[in-house]
Design brief:
Structural class: mainly beta
Radius of gyration: 18 Å
CATH superfamily: Galactose-binding domain-like
Largest sheet: 5 strands, antiparallel
Number of strands: 11
Order of helices and strands: HEEEEEEEEEEE
CATH topology: Jelly Rolls
Oligomer: single chain
Number of helices: 1
Strand content: over 45%
CATH class: Mainly Beta
Number of domains: 1
Distance between the termini: 41 Å
Length: about 150
């Protein structure tokens, strides 16, 4: 009987977590070199062709360590919807630390952030090629460990 209850609880938890992410169509992180992220290094993501037309919310994820020397980060995000041929360019200003010095991300020695980028219309069979680069004055940015992209159907 206990085994059955434990099995039912585990299955219910898995189904609940899966149901929360039904509209997520893409989520992936790319690692940044440990020596630092150079200005000319572009991080690329390729989203497979979509099954359903609609509006898609995009988010950029960021993981940093305490070695990151600034309160913010400016990112340039270029996107190409391959089937429809649409191009998008966004500048994302990421505030990592507030004016009181409080970290806005989640974590202790490594911090994770998520920033809304845009909601874009995409057609069925569209695939996306996304590139992200930093637009900071410093050539090499230490302390950034991963950059990610999430795409959620609205």
């Amino acid at each position: 009987m206990r085994k059955l209850i434990r099995y039912t609880m585990t299955l219910s938890t898995i189904l609940l977590v899966a149901a929360c992410n039904l509209n997520m169509v893409y989520s992936h992180y790319e690692h940044v070199p440990t020596k630092g992220w150079e200005r000319n290094d572009t991080i690329s993501f390729d989203v497979s062709p979509l099954e359903i037309s609609g509006n898609y919310q995009e988010k950029v994820g960021l993981r940093i360590t305490g070695e990151y020397p600034f309160m913010g980060l400016t990112l340039i995000v270029d996107q190409t919807a391959v089937k429809s041929g649409r191009n998008y360019r966004d500048t994302l200003n990421c505030k990592l630390i507030d004016h009181n010095g409080n970290v806005k991300g989640q974590g202790v020695s490594h911090y994770q952030y998520e920033f809304k980028l845009a909601t874009i219309p995409l057609e069925a069979e569209d695939s996306l090629h996304i590139t992200i680069r930093h637009d900071m004055k410093r050539e090499m940015l230490p302390g950034i460990t991963d950059i990610g992209v999430t795409l959620i159907r609205q």
